[in-house]
Specification:
By secondary structure, the chain is α/β, with parallel strands linked by helices. It contains 16 helices and 12 strands. Strand 8 and strand 9 form a beta hairpin.
Length: 402
């Protein structure tokens, strides 16, 4: 009971010279000679490595280990493997209770606290998280009931190293993640999902990446792709800022230092929501309206695009038609280019307005993933980071022992 071990017989307890408690145990008769992977009863192969030790939860401030024989068995499915023990997972040198506590701490406290409290290396924490997450995923169906999903990627490390994540809009859970950001990465998820469940997908929120759009079109015939409103507005903001920088450079080259300074200082006034402008920023906009007509026209075009997400669907469609006509003839190259992009993505933009779906929940998960990435600093493989993310955001974290 003190060790948190069941279905085992305690044979001996001894205190080592370094004040470590070693408890000799053996599995009960019913638990012996079982495959370490599938748990089936199998014939014994050999004695294996002989005696093996597993780190258990500390007894107060004293390190504790379980010691037992580790024979090998011959499984019809998995061939020769180490026999299963009831107190630890396969290929682990820690007890199940120890690993569950490590995972719970990794999800809830800092990396330094986990390593110091459990007296293990941080890389060891990554391996434990991976092992526990894989076991939890094998025991439950993460893809059950998926109808509305969000797909997005984020950089988890320098050097353009990305993870692609899939979020269930109905539950808010992270259901899948993998390294990469191309079409093959998205197709890995859709292949795991299977044709039957792909047909059940109704809505998919994502950005304008062609890799996601082509994969969804090929595998999910009934899914409607909803282009995230934030990415649409971001393109308009980028076009506006491109024009502002062009005006600023022209003023600098002409020697109008004060005018260049005013345009540079108006950046946040141009980006900000009109309802939240300060008095100083309102004055800045009024000055631009009087002195720089092209920049103010670009500001009005960008603000008009925001309005399509503030009105009902039918009105938004009419407003989008008017905006496209205005952007095409505005003689501002960045907005002419943006009009072409929105025309290509129009079906997804209208679907997002009609169904009220965005990548907001996915971006929320991405923010939490960035925090997890910082906490996981020292994990040298994306698999360990994904395991910690699934434990934290995929509802896989085991409860504390007992």
């Amino acid at each position: 009971m003190l060790l948190g071990v069941e279905r085992a017989v305690v044979e001996d307890v001894r205190l080592e010279d370094d004040e470590t408690i070693v408890v000799s145990v053996r599995p009960t008769a019913r638990e012996r000679q079982r495959c370490g992977v599938c748990g089936r009863r199998c014939p014994r192969e050999d004695a294996g490595e002989g005696r093996r030790q597993w780190r258990a939860l500390d007894l107060g401030t004293t390190l504790a280990y379980l010691e037992a024989d580790a024979p090998r068995v011959r499984c019809k499915r998995h061939e020769v493997v180490v026999a299963r023990v009831p107190w630890a997972r396969h290929n682990s040198r820690f007890t199940t209770a120890f690993e569950d506590q490590v995972c719970w701490l990794a999800v809830n406290v800092s990396k330094k606290a986990v390593a110091e409290l459990m007296r293990i290396a941080w890389r060891t924490v990554g391996g434990i998280c991976k092992r526990v997450a894989d076991e939890e995923l094998a025991q439950r169906d993460q893809f059950a009931g998926l109808k509305r999903i969000g797909i997005d990627d984020f950089a988890h490390r320098r050097g353009h190293r990305y993870l692609t994540g899939v979020v269930d809009h109905d539950t808010g859970r992270l259901v899948w993640a993998a390294p990469g950001r191309d079409r093959q990465t998205v197709e890995k998820f859709l292949e795991l999902l299977g044709p039957e469940r792909c047909d059940q997908i109704e809505l998919v929120s994502c950005d304008m990446a062609e890799s996601i759009a082509s994969a969804i079109a090929a595998h999910c015939p009934n899914a409607i792709r909803c282009v995230d409103p934030f990415h649409v507005i971001q393109l308009a903001t980028d076009a506006l800022d491109e024009i502002r920088r062009e005006v600023w450079n022209q003023a600098r080259r002409a020697g109008h230092q004060q005018a260049a300074k005013d345009v540079k200082g108006a950046r946040y006034a141009l980006w900000k929501n009109p309802a939240k402008l300060t008095e100083h920023q309102k004055v800045k906009l009024a000055e631009i309206q009087q002195t720089n007509k092209p920049l103010y026209r670009a500001y009005l075009i960008s603000q008009q695009l925001r309005e399509i997400y503030r009105v009902p669907h039918e009105e938004a469609v009419s407003l989008l038609d008017a905006w496209l006509a205005w952007a095409r003839r505005c003689r501002l190259a960045p907005f002419v280019k943006l009009a072409k992009t929105i025309t290509r993505q129009r079906a997804g933009i209208e679907a997002a307005i009609k169904h009220g779906l965005s990548n907001a929940r996915t971006e929320q998960i991405n923010t939490q993933l960035r925090l997890i990435t910082r906490r996981a600093y020292g994990f040298h493989t994306p698999e360990a980071l994904i395991a910690l993310a699934m434990l934290s955001l995929g509802d896989l974290c085991p409860p504390l022992p007992a």
